[in-house]
Amino acid sequence: MVRRVAAKRSVGGASVRPPPQRISARDDRDKPLVLPAIVRFAGLRFDYATASIDRLWSAYAGQDWTTFLPGLAAEGQQYELLARLADLDDPLDIDDVARAARRIGSALAGIDWWGACRIAGVCEANRFLFLAWAALQGINTEVMSLPHMFATGYAYMVDACEDVAALDLQLWTPPPTAGIPRWESADEARDFATALATMGRARPA
């Protein structure tokens, strides 16, 4: 039985409501987040428009969480979040944003954030070989959804390795917590402004 739903999901403190779509009543939790969608985080609403697969794939390859929050949101909403981070009296911390962004990235990919980054990173580093392998398999990556891109990337890596168990361990083991960068409160506005600048969006005067 199929029904129309607008499944609300919690993504690292951010509630995500995809647009109504036809899905099985039994697989609501497992279905990847579909754009466009509405993301609520820290009392703010972000309207996510459809983004190109190439842009998102490159963001995963570079472990660039700023593409997901606030990068996919409307420009004015980005500045609202930046203002919150610049306010030293606001409890919102840039680490909170980074964690939520990674979880949103995981929801879009349909797999763990770090695994997605590693798969995209390997495929991008060997882009010609990856595309050539896909062509030999009769796979057209130009028309694939994001979850299918990751499945194809994983298949490419499995096909090229001798020890799948070791590959899986390498892909899906999260990095140690100590490896996650921290920000001091006084530096948050500067660091986040730099992150926005790398996306080509300077804060308006």
Provide an overview of this structure.
- The chain has helices spanning 53-61, 75-86, 94-109, 113-125, 127-136, 146-160, 164-172, 188-198, and strands spanning 2-5, 9-11, 14-17, 21-24, 37-41, 44-48.
- The protein has 2 domains: 1-110 and 183-205, no CATH class; 111-174, no CATH class.
- With 205 residues, the chain is α+β, with helices and mostly antiparallel strands.
- A hairpin with a 2-residue loop joins strand 2 and strand 3.
- It contains 8 helices and 6 strands, in the order ββββββαααααααα.
Write the layout of secondary structure elements.
Blueprint lengths: L1 E4 L3 E3 L2 E4 L3 E4 L12 E5 L2 E5 L4 H9 L13 H12 L7 H16 L3 H13 L1 H10 L9 H15 L3 H9 L15 H11 L7
Antiparallel strand pairs: 1-4, 2-3, 3-5, 5-6
Helix pairs in contact: 1-4, 2-8, 4-5, 4-6
Helix content: 40-55%
Beta strand %: 5-15%
Number of helices: 8
The helix/strand series, from N terminus to C terminus, equals: EEEEEEHHHHHHHH
- Rounded mean pLDDT is 76
Categorize the overall geometry.
elongated
Query: How are the strands of the biggest sheet laid out side by side?
Result: 2-3-5-6
**What count of structural domains?**
2
Helix/strand-derived category reads: alpha+beta
For the terminal residues, how far apart are their CA atoms?
Answer: 53 Å
Number of strands: 6
Give the biggest beta sheet: 4 strands, antiparallel
Task: Sum this structure up briefly.
This protein folds into 2 domains: 1-110 and 183-205, no CATH class; 111-174, no CATH class.
Throw out a few tags for this protein.
disordered C terminus; 46% helix; alpha+beta; disordered N terminus; elongated; 4-stranded antiparallel beta sheet; 2 domains; 205 residues; single chain; two-stranded antiparallel sheet; 12% strand; 6 strands
